[in-house]
Amino acid sequence: MIYTRISGTGSYLPGEPVGNAALIAAHGLDSSDEWIVERTGIRSRHLAAAGVTSSDLALEASRHALQAAGRTAADVDLIIVATSTPDYVFPSAAALLQSKLGNINGAAAFDVQAVCSGFVYGLTIADKFIRSGSHKCALVVGAEVFSRILDWKDRGTCVLFGDGAGAVVLEASDQPGLLSSAFHADGSHHGILSVPGQLCGGVVTGDPFLRMDGQAVFKFAVKVLADVANEVLGAAGMTAAQVDWLIPHQANVRIMQATAKRLHIAPENCIVTVGHHGNTSAASIPLALDESVRAGRIQRGQHLLLEGVGGGFTWGATLLKF
Ligand code: UT7
Question: Active site residue: 20, 46, 103, 116, which one?
């Protein structure tokens, strides 16, 4: 029996943290540190310098993950980058990452576009490749430069997001690692969170900025995060009481607390890192995972429940033994 295990984690945040007060001052926003902290839990975020792209951030996170796994780029035969802010329309950020890593073994490389659920989508896809026996060592990365698609005049969205990347190395193993996964979408909700712009004839048409109905997203997120958590727990024959760490998409501390409560998971078993990096979309789950592994909170053998929700709408979860 072939299983998929996480053999290493890594992450990267660009530059210095930008606190709420500094962000408000820089963009002349009608907002306050108190409002942002109370409604979201976010105190600061990192913003990539001009010219720094998702594949640049992915490269740093990937190097850390490969080092932690004791692997080199030459060992990797599958690269999946989850991003909604790729460097180019094409080629994919994954192909650019492959080149930057110096992986010249012809590893398959492609992007997954499932917004904030992208990382769990990527994990689920890579797991299927590895379990099939077709691939043995996958790099799954979430990397975003959401600062590029924010309307800095829209206080309802621009204070929420940040840039960053997180990565894991997944390897074939005879020991259980990933136990169960589920991913879903309901495109009928596309209007509540989107960047409704296009490139057409050399110009941007439509709206190139992130638009969101925050309250609608909030309600939808809490419901589907609880549902999909129960789905993967049921598939693995486990209960929430057996979960050592819940690692939800890091969007808003209130969403995470509400989800943990619905699942009867204690707040202290829910990993929360959004406070110092904001919502980094597809990067948020592997960022939270890596920080907690490096801090010694997450230990080998523990059960982790990773779950994401985002534009599309998309949502998904992965239950694993670390
Ligand atoms: O990755 C998934 C993506 N997104 C999310 O997960 C976000 C989900 N939604 C949320 O996190 C919350 O809905 C927000 C944090 C976006 C907003 O919090 P809320 O408690 O739902 O606030 P609200 O939208 O109901 O707005 C309350 C008030 C409004 O003013 P009025 O109409 O009551 O006068 C807003 O205009 O807060 C105002 N407001 C702000 N005030 C100060 C909105 N943004 C700000 C701001 N600073 N940055």
Answer: 116
- Residue 158 Cβ inside 6 Å of ligand 1? The answer reads no
Residue 163 and residue 214 in one domain: no
b/e for 36-68, b at 16 or more Cβ within 10 A? beeebbbbbbbbbeeebbbbbbbbbbbbbbbeb
Examine the domain organization and report whether 204 and 95 are in the same domain: no
The identity of residue 153, as a single letter, is K
The domain tally of the chain equals 2
Confidence (pLDDT) at 319 = 98
Instruction: Please say if the pLDDT value at position 212 is more than 90.
Output: yes
Domain span including residue 63: 3-175
**Does residue 116's CB lie within 6 angstroms of at least one atom of ligand 1?**
yes
| pLDDT of 199 strictly over 90 | yes
| 158-176 tens-digit pLDDT | 999 999 999 999 999 999 9
